[in-house]
Design a protein that fits this description.
This protein is α/β, with parallel strands linked by helices. 27% of the residues lie in helices and 28% in strands.
């Protein structure tokens, strides 16, 4: 989840009901070996075949005997039309010309293809069918009486602003063990660096932005959140140094209530500590730093400890297991209530612009305790967002609204529960190839906050969305290795996003009839745009009725 092109699986999954309704479908795992074999076999039986490749053109096959068509999403106003890195497939015009036609998920992408290959090129804009998938859900929900509270059972990682104590001088997790779904540590050796290029810098709390050597603490009690639970004998090696009044100062280093003390020097020194833990914990806590300004300091920031790296190792640890021999996992019940705004995205995808989603929300609702922003993070790595979100929470304090990030898999009932309690879906993307989650929530009668550009211009409408203004800016292709600008995306107007938050909140709170009309309009708009019936008609027109029979 969250890796490049991971969403193509969901595109394929969404199209399968349409494809199965118009012909026999084979899925292949090794296209180079299987496609032409199937093609030859079916031709002998007098059947027409079409290989549909759910991939970007740069990943599609060329030169097959079987007619091939690419189904792909693209969010920029120009498709790659040059060769680089000695890879001819980086020139999408080469691939698409060899296929002779293509299917895109939006009119914006289709026009970009025509701009490169000519208006004569056969390209269709066909969205993923979404509306019918939520038919049973729509029969269960009551638009006339919106759900204001739901409990979700979740066994992933949870970042809840209500679970943090934040002040200008402190940043503390109140209960990390219950809110992070962490593996048990088995005593294996781990080395973690904290420079700007190290993954583990995302697990820091109360530190400044990492630099090329490591990072400086910002508060007097900073901490490291470990991605597993420690217990038993733990060897900890810290490479640290002090600044200002902390040079030659003894500070505390604690794990699980057990504290050791080290003396900081002016240069990085490796300190070796041994902890014998009787209870599990996943926080390394520093204490007793002196943040008093140092006369003559070259850096005016509240620097205390300079953290470069840590190493952990220990004896093999036995953990309690249930009768099945599987380690117990304590699922967490999360209460979600209030006026809920939701966004679903991969935090590693820079196009999603989730920093603006968070900062604008905190600013718009800094004095509104019943406003909740739910961020469903679709990425396998907690480090893809944790450090950035922690830093945003510190930067935006004080605020009374709630920020809730869910990292992990939501099964269908829990996902639908999240949809049911949501009042608005939020999108602040710089560009989109389609945005399936936005379409899904709208199909479930949820209005939106969204820009009106790229793929979203096909289905977003002011009758059920608060439009966020945006302007064009130059950018690079996501897979570009030459660091050159070849296309454009959109820069969101941050104030417009703030205004959309405030306006939408006012409509829900003070104009329920208008909100209900937006709910109905959102669902009917997606029905017209992406029902199975509509998509099937478009697909049949594209491939030709003779090939479909």
């Amino acid at each position: 989840m969250g890796m490049p092109e991971y969403s193509y699986y969901f595109v394929l999954k969404g199209f399968l009901p349409v494809l199965r309704s118009i012909g026999r479908v084979y899925t292949v795992s090794n296209p180079e070996r299987e496609v032409d074999e199937l093609y030859d076999d079916r031709k002998k039986c007098g059947e027409d075949c079409l290989y549909i490749s759910f991939t970007p053109p740069s990943k599609a096959l060329v030169g097959l005997r079987c007619p091939t068509v690419c189904v792909f999403a693209w969010e920029f106003d120009r498709i790659p039309d040059e060769v680089w890195d000695d890879n001819p497939k980086n020139d999408w015009t080469h691939v698409l010309s060899s296929h002779g036609r293509a299917i895109t998920l939006s009119k914006h992408t289709a026009q970009a293809v025509k701009n490169a290959l000519g208006e004569w090129f056969d390209v269709a804009a066909i969205p993923v069918p979404v509306w019918d998938h939520f038919e049973l859900y729509r029969k269960r929900i009551l638009i006339e009486n919106p759900i204001t509270h739901i409990d979700i059972i979740f066994d992933g990682n949870i970042v809840d602003s209500k679970n943090y104590r934040i002040t200008p001088e402190s940043f503390e997790i109140l209960n990390s063990k219950d809110f992070f779904h962490l593996q048990n540590w088995m005593g294996e050796k781990l080395r973690a660096g904290f420079s700007e290029t190290d993954e583990y810098s995302a697990y820091l709390g109360g530190f400044y932005k990492p630099e090329n050597w490591g990072t400086w603490s910002r508060i007097d009690s900073p901490w490291i959140l470990l991605p597993f639970r420690l217990t038993g004998k733990v060897h900890l090696s810290l490479t640290v140094h002090g600044y200002g009044h902390n040079i030659n100062r003894k500070i505390g280093v604690s794990i699980g209530g057990v504290q050791k003390r080290i003396r900081l020097l002016s240069v990085p020194v490796k300190h070796h500590l041994l902890f014998d833990l009787t209870k599990t914990d996943n926080i390394i806590q520093f204490s007793d730093l002196d943040l008093t300004p140092w006369e003559g300091a070259r850096d005016p920031r509240s620097l205390g400890i300079g953290l470069q790296s840590i190493e952990l190792w220990g004896d093999p640890v036995r953990h309690p297991k249930d009768n099945s021999g599987i380690e117990k996992i304590n699922k967490k019940k999360i209460a979600i209530d209030g006026v809920v705004y939701t966004s679903v995205f991969s935090p590693a995808d820079g196009r999603k612009n989730w920093k603006d989603i968070v900062t604008a929300f905190c600013y718009a609702f800094q004095d509104v305790p019943d406003a909740t922003l739910v961020l469903k993070m679709s990425h396998h790595a907690l480090s893809s967002f944790l450090g950035k979100l922690h830093f945003l929470l510190q930067q935006m304090y004080p605020f009374k609204c709630r920020i809730l990030a869910l990292h992990g898999y939501l099964d269908t009932p829990e996902y639908e529960s999240l949809i049911s309690v949501t009042k608005y879906y939020v999108n602040a993307s710089r560009c989109e190839g389609l945005c399936l989650p936005l379409m899904e929530f709208m199909a479930c009668c949820k209005p939106a906050i969204s820009p009106y550009h790229t793929a979203m211009a096909d289905y977003v409408d002011p009758s059920f969305a608060f439009i966020v203004n945006a302007n064009l800016e130059p950018c690079m292709y996501p897979h570009e290795t030459r660091d050159i600008y070849r296309t454009r995306r959109y820069r969101i107007d941050w104030k417009s996003l703030v205004d959309a938050y405030r306006h939408s909140y006012d409509v829900f709170k003070n104009n329920p009839d208008s909100y209900k009309r937006m709910c109905h309009s959102a669902s009917s708009g997606i029905e017209k745009f992406s029902s199975i019936k509509r998509v099937k008609e478009q697909f049949m027109d594209f491939i030709g009725k003779d090939n479909a029979n």
